[in-house]
């Protein structure tokens, strides 16, 4: 008698800039867990040859492309941060495409659960598709220090990103699970390992 494989349940993984969300996702992936990253999906839909890239060039001009025909992210960022209307136009174009790319990737998962990692899980209402939410939480002072060190950004730039993201309180309000990532990488790995063992015991993401 053949049996139909059970579709994996979805864990939403989020955290603010500098929280260690990516490092946590990478650790889950070492256990064979299927991870879809919203930032990666955002890159897929604007790769050369994708219709969205041609639409961007037609709308903003060739100045948002590199000489090799790739998206010049810095040039595009400068355009949309200076004009809220342009940012809304870009979001209206890309968000549905990104959503479909994420859905396709999650639908292909064969692990017991799959992870949808997004820095904007709370802000954009994307958590609706997740059965559980894991928040990687970190004090703001540590976020600032890590993001400045990692990206070479100024404190003002990092604070602007923080202001555009959900607050710690907003993220924690929707969390089923929380890792406070204020120690070293070994600590983060230990906490991920502990939660992974717990998640394997869950049916449909619910204890």
TrEMBL record:
Keyword Hydrolase: no
Keywords attached to this entry: ATP-binding, Coenzyme A biosynthesis, Cytoplasm, Kinase, Nucleotide-binding, Transferase
EC number in record: 2.7.1.24
Pathway(s) this gene product operates in, as recorded in its UniProt entry: Cofactor biosynthesis; coenzyme A biosynthesis; CoA from (R)-pantothenate: step 5/5
Signal peptide: none
UniProt-annotated binding residues for ATP: 18-23
Catalytic activity: 3'-dephospho-CoA + ATP = ADP + CoA + H(+)
Similarity-based family: Belongs to the CoaE family.
NCBIfam families, per the entry: dephospho-CoA kinase
Known role: Catalyzes the phosphorylation of the 3'-hydroxyl group of dephosphocoenzyme A to form coenzyme A.
Protein name, entry field: Dephospho-CoA kinase
Organism: Pseudomonas typographi
């Amino acid at each position: 008698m053949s049996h139909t494989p059970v579709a994996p349940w979805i864990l939403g993984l989020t955290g603010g800039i500098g929280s260690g969300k990516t490092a946590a996702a990478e650790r889950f992936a070492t256990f064979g867990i299927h991870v879809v990253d919203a930032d990666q999906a955002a890159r897929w839909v604007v790769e050369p040859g994708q219709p969205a890239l041609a639409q961007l060039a037609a709308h903003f001009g060739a100045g948002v492309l590199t000489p090799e025909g790739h998206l010049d992210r810095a040039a595009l960022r400068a355009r949309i941060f200076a004009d809220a209307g342009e940012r809304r136009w870009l979001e209206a174009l890309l968000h549905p495409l990104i959503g479909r790319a994420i859905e396709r990737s999650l639908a292909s998962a064969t692990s017991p659960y799959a992870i949808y990692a997004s820095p904007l899980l709370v802000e954009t209402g994307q958590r609706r598709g997740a059965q559980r939410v894991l928040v990687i939480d970190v004090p703001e002072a540590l976020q600032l220090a890590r993001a400045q060190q990692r990206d070479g950004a100024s404190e003002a730039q990092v604070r602007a990103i923080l202001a555009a993201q959900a607050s710690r309180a907003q993220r924690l309000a929707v969390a089923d699970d929380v890792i406070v990532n204020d120690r070293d990488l070994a600590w983060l790995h230990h906490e991920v390992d502990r939660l992974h063992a717990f998640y394997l015991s869950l049916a449909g993401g619910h204890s």
